[in-house]
Amino acid sequence: MVIADNRLVPDYGGGVCQVATTLYNAVLLSGLKVTERVPHTRPVPYVPVGKDATIAGDIIDFKFMNNSSYPILIVSQVQQDKLLVSILGHREGVSARLVKTETQRSINKAPRQYIQDPLLAPGQVVVRNPGIDGHEQKIFEIIMENDIEIERRLISKTVAEPVPEVIALGPKVKNKGVLNK
C-alpha cells in the first residue's frame, strides 16, 4: 500500500519508505546532518509520528550529509524480519555523551462535514470518509553529558492538516401525524 491523495491505495513501491525511515532514524541518532526529508501526509504504523521519511521516485527523496571530519560506514542487515541500519564512524571530543530525542505533539481534531445524498434511503446515514486528525509535531535532538543537557536542536517539524470526516445523510424522514415521546 502507498499513500496517494491522502488515501492508502495499492501501488508499486509500498514499503520502500520503511527502509528510508530506518535510515533516517539511524542518521538522527548518529548526529549526521539531514539535508532533505519529507514526512508522510498521514501517520504510518511502523514508527512514531514525525520520525518517518518518504521517498517517491525522482519526486521525493531523503538526503543527508557526513558533516563530520571522518568517513562513515553504513551497514544494513535483516535479522528476524527486521531491518537494522548502523552508522559507524568517529566523533571528536565525545565522552560520556548521550544523544536522545524528545517529541512535542499537539492534535488538531478532524472536523465533521455532513452532506445530503438523495440516493440514500430516508434517514440513512453513511460515513463516506472517517477523517484523520491533524497534528503538529516537533522532534528535538538533545545532547547530554554527565546527565546535564548541553545542547538542544530542532531536527524535525511535521504539520499535517486534518482530513474532514464526511457523513452522508439520506432524505429527512417525514413525521407528519406521528407523536414523538
What does this structure look like?
- With 181 residues, the chain is mostly beta strands.
- It folds into two domains: 1-91, no CATH class; 93-172, Resuscitation-promoting factor rpfb (Resuscitation-promoting factor rpfb fold, Single Sheet).
- Helix content is 8%, strand content 44%.
- The strands form five sheets. Strands 7-10-11 form a three-stranded antiparallel beta sheet, covered by helices on one side.
- The model has no long low-confidence stretch (mean pLDDT 83).
Give the rounded overall mean pLDDT. 83
Distance between the termini: 49 Å
- Structural class, by secondary structure, is mainly beta
Order of helices and strands: EEHEEEEEEEEEE
Rg measurement, Å:
23 Å
What distinguishing features does this structure have?
single chain, 181 residues, mainly beta, Resuscitation-promoting factor rpfb fold, three-stranded antiparallel beta sheet, 12 strands, elongated
